[in-house]
Amino acid sequence: MGDPVLVDDAARSFIAQQARGVDIMLVRPPTDSLTSIRAAVSQMGLFSTSRAVWIRGLRNEPASEVDDLMDLLSNGLPPDNVLVATADSLDQRSRLFKLFKSNDAVVDCRLEKDRSGRLLDSAVSAFVGSRLRSNGVAKPATALVAAIVERAGSDVGEIAQEIDKLCLAAGDGVPDAALVRSTMRDLGEVWVFALTDALSGRDLASAQQLLDQLTRQGEPILRLLAVLGTHFASLTEAHRELRNLPRGALAGRGLDKGDYEQLSPDFRARYRQPMRAYFLLKGAAAYRGRELIDLHRKLLSIDIALKSSRGRPEDLLSSFLAQACAAAA
Known about the structure:
Zinc Finger, Delta Prime, domain 3; 5% strand; 3 domains
């Protein structure tokens, strides 16, 4: 079980260990029925007496098909036959999972996560090192692995894709941390905070530099637009809360408990962490209320322009950044 990037390699390795030259039959639910497996394992292989049936992408299949597969597995496969099933996940309460488990036939390839569901850095580091080695980087530098982990998100497939792209960009050389920063997309979305901080600080140079970097790395313009739209909608909401705070409440490095409790119940319910509320309020304070509304409308007009193919996307976003970073009148 696990991301296809992880389980597919594990399945190929397992099949290769069983026998050389084994015939492989792929079954892809729901396009292929699980009932086809019985006929497949009873046939003689074309080039080998051994056959491996690989159920690729097992999910919650129809009960009748599961019954047939369980009957086949309970009675045992014909000699020299192997069955491998791969899945993103499988309900551990299901009969099929319990059958695999009872035969000690479950291999969990998923990367370990913390209580919040975030991939552990140690697990990501191990995967990054392994992927780099499979791309020909014999001894990945610690700084290289750390730079990739810093930009890694929670999608293992995307991480693998970015590592493959990085190694291609390095050509005959060895990728380094500098190449990661210039080439790899920030899957962990640290750029969201960097960009919104630059805008709240009205730092056009930093905001434009970050936009250029993101577009070079292949970050979709519509995604950038969506992030900015959400951020400025949140700033508009936060700006209305400023009147609930006493003068000087944002002068320190955070909100006092008493000041936080002055905010509306709805706002506190949305931003349960006082520090998160503080940074949003601090950003909102850099603008006038009317200004935030106009900027949000500007983003909506850019969205319409992009979808109607009017204007270069980069130019439209650069124009927005200039307006958002302009000094308050």
